[in-house]
Amino acid sequence: MQAWLTDLQHLLAHGDAAVLVTVARVEGSAPREAGTKMIVTREAARHTIGGGHLEWKAIETARQVLREGMRTPHARRLERFALGPSLGQCCGGAVVLAFERLDVSDLGWLSTLAHRLAAGASTVRSVSFRSSRNGTPPGGAVGHTAGLDRQDASAESAAAVATVMLSEPEPGVETPDCLLWDTGTPGQGDGTMLLTETIAPNDWPVVLFGAGHVGAALVRVLGTLPCHVRWVDERDAAFPSPEAFAALGAPNVAIDANDAPDEAIDAAPPGTSFIVMTHDHSRDLDLAERILRRGDFVFFGMIGSHTKRKQFEHRLAARGIDPLQIARMQCPLGVDGIVDKSPEVIAISAAAQLLQAIEAHAAGLHAREHAGVAVPGTIHSA
Fold first, then answer.
1. Residue 22 sits in the same domain as residue 145
2. Residue 22 lies in a domain
3. In what residue span(s) does the XdhC- CoxI domain sit (predicted)?
């Protein structure tokens, strides 16, 4: 689940108004990528668009939009910030930030979006912004549709330029994306802008085998990341007590005390990452064989030495595993250059290597999806 979405639903359900700040466009170097979000209320700010002076100015602007809500409940605004000249940040680029004031009436489309993400479905969210002739985007009235809407709006709803729309992505396009389009009439200065973003499930699946010291340390790290972890070990006593597990603060981790841990491999969805660090080398070998026979994983790492890797390469080859698949096994586990073998250091190193694989996989998907896809000149909201 997108953390900002959960927090926003919670705030609005309690009757609070909030401003959703989105990095709508990035020009050059910037602290965060397009699509990054922050939530601002009168008292607090949650999540981050990169910190520094930019974030301070964004919070200030968001609270202005909140005050505008006294006259225009769904005030919206676009603002461009040059990071170097005006904000004194070293990035040197510029960002366009979208500010959307939301309240309890927005829970409909937020709930629809949350349910789709929970079901593993990507969704395109589209929001229009009306600008003045001088290019300064003022706030404006807005409506929204709670469901997936492909129908043309009535004349009355079409007058609400900033309608929040949810729709299906184009076939074959599932990765996150965020684009800002100028949909106004060329040369007329009417300045209508459309923000479209493909919001995709970002909780990648991980199966972790082994509840020893390193496994427990890795769980503490993974508990802070956008992933779902199935933590498997046949030794029930190896897991922390319910009280100790709750104290880890890792709600995205599920304990699986299983006498047949290889079942977790068969049950894992395509694109799962596997990490093996059990107490038994023969168990490690069996798990490695089963993972490599699947082949549809994003990452497979196993704790061990270079000697262990050599032994496993020979044994896996003897079991008929393709050498190209064996080469995908990351053992020793962790990024290069870190030699400390304490559980906490191994855990951080392993998590870093996992993140490298996740990001490389996501970049590859994005490149394949957008290869040869024409960019539309105009997008119309319903």
1. yes
2. yes
3. 12-70
Taking only the tens place, the pLDDT of each residue in 188-235 is 555 688 999 999 887 899 999 999 999 999 999 999 998 999 999 999
Tokens of 241: 């007590």
Contact of 162 with 142, CB cutoff 8 Å: yes
Give the C-alpha distances (Å, rounded to integers) separating 367 from 120, 362, 371.
Answer: 21, 9, 6
Residue 371 included in any domain: no
Percent of the chain past pLDDT 90, that is, above it, reads 61
The C-alpha atoms of residue 40 and residue 240 are separated, in whole angstroms, by: 37
Separation between Cα atoms, residue 330 and residue 300, nearest integer Å: 6
User: CA 42, 48, 49, 52: dihedral to nearest 10 degrees?
Assistant: 90
- Helices 213-222, 343-370: axis angle to 10 degrees equals 50
Q: Which residue has the tokens 């990024």?
A: 335
Residue with tokens 């779902």: 228
Question: Contact at 8 Å (CB) between 16 and 32?
Answer: no
Are 208 and 244 found together in one domain?
yes
CATH code for position 218: 3.40.50.720
Higher pLDDT: 158 or 165? It is: 165
Query: Residue 39 sits in which domain range?
Result: 3-199
For 51, phi and psi rounded to 5 degrees? 75, -165
Give, in order, the Cα–Cα distances in Å from 350 to each of 80, 215, 282. 39, 11, 22
Kindly give the pairing relationship between strand 144-148 and strand 164-167: parallel
In a domain, 218, yes or no: yes
Q: Is 316 helix (H, G, I), strand (E, B) or coil?
A: helix
